[in-house]
User: Fold this.
Amino acid sequence: SIALQNKNGQPNIEFRVDNAHHLQTISDNSIDLLICIESAFHYPQKELFLQQINRVLKKSGKFIIADIINKSHKRKYLTQGWKDKMSFHHWTEQQYIESINNYGLKIDHAEIITDSIIKGYQGSRHWINRKNCGSLFNYIWFKAFSIIQLGINVHLLKTKEDYYLISGSHKS
Assistant:
């Protein structure tokens, strides 16, 4: 995998694949830093994940979660059925705050970084080039798909969702 290839000979870095609700391959109080980027919105039971963070983090350990959240609890999507099939389980900022506090963790820093994410999308159409896609058909298809997907993402971030960054640790 890319992560293993770029470990740069660091003996104290490990990569594991596991279920975020159970983290069976990770011992209690064994993790210095847990990073979860753009996957938590797929967890149907984020509470279980937060319990696991509390269990596996060393007492001096830290966690970072970057997640896409709903701006409002009340908003429904026209595409709710599709969201359910895609296993999208977006929380609100308030749900994160309450749940993190309920599971023995504390927030050290939290920030909505939506504007920075949208700004980062600028110029993304140029990330895909012909030589990396194989055939002309694949290139055109992938480029069109990417443009549409990025457009949808930006629209949702401007209207219904936010990009939330949280860092935290155990409660003292």
